[in-house]
Design a protein that fits this description.
By secondary structure, this protein is α+β, with helices and mostly antiparallel strands. It has helices at residues 4-20, 26-32, 38-50, and strands at residues 54-56, 64-66, 104-114, 119-120, 127-132, 142-148, 162-166, 176-181, 185-194, 197-201, 210-213, 217-227. The chain has three helices and twelve strands, in the order H-H-H-E-E-E-E-E-E-E-E-E-E-E-E. Helix 1 crosses helix 3.
Length: 230
């Protein structure tokens, strides 16, 4: 049996993985559970891992995978296991329905995007990458970028990962976006609007949040998926 705090944390991680495809940072977990320090989150994470509900991926900073869920969060009765397929807004599939073939979609990889100090803006296709069709969210065009740097590691995004981006010029606070700074530098950061300014926040305490006048930052897309090669 899980404590209320353990259950709340598992639910928060599960919902964030469904929404963003990446786990929340420890700071976000601390805020969501109204804890005073990250040490409390470490204890809860350890307890969930020992009970077999989550798995921390080796050599990946704070990367977390949901292994199973309790029945109260939608897990299967008895085992607690839940499918890893994330349900969208499609109608429920009848029990006697035939298996559906999932097709891969070829996306252009537009080069590298900095998860650290911004690099020159990216506009040239370097190659193509195949991604599962269900990873693409909503309408609009999508593209992929290879991540360079470690400033988003607490969001589960590591150097060398490929991120899938949906093209959009708008973002909500907390979204991970591709931001074009002063029409010449591109970076992958969390987006926050603060009055007439835009804050681009890293998910690594080693990097400071950068704040720009709103007319100096253009949102080029929002993160919808991540591909990692081991």
């Amino acid at each position: 049996m899980l404590t209320k705090k353990q259950l709340d944390l598992l639910d928060f991680i599960h919902k964030r993985l469904q929404r963003d495809g990446v786990p929340p940072s420890f700071d976000e977990m601390k805020t969501a559970l109204d804890l005073r320090s990250k040490s409390g989150i470490h204890r809860l994470i350890t307890a969930l891992e020992e009970r077999g509900f989550i798995r921390r991926l080796a050599h990946r900073a704070r990367a977390i995978e949901i292994v199973r869920l309790p029945e109260s969060l939608g897990g299967e009765p008895g085992t607690g296991f839940t499918p890893k397929v994330i349900d969208g807004d499609k109608p429920a599939v009848p029990a006697n329905a035939q298996p559906v073939t999932i097709h891969a979609v070829e996306l252009p990889v537009m080069g590298r995007i900095a998860a650290g100090v911004p690099i020159e803006a990216i506009s040239q296709v370097s190659h193509q990458v195949a991604v599962p069709g269900q990873m693409l969210s909503g309408s609009g065009d999508h593209y992929a970028l290879e991540v360079k740097g470690d400033s988003m590691i607490d969001a589960g995004i590591n150097n060398g990962d490929v991120v899938v981006i949906r093209e959009t010029s708008s973002a909500d606070n907390g979204d991970i976006v591709v931001a074009l700074v002063e029409d010449q530098e591109a970076t992958l950061k969390r987006f926050f609007r603060k009055g007439n300014a835009i804050a681009l926040e890293a998910a690594n305490p080693a990097y400071e949040t950068r704040v720009f006048p709103e007319d100096k930052v253009k949102v080029q897309g929002r993160l919808v998926g991540l591909i990692r090669t081991y």
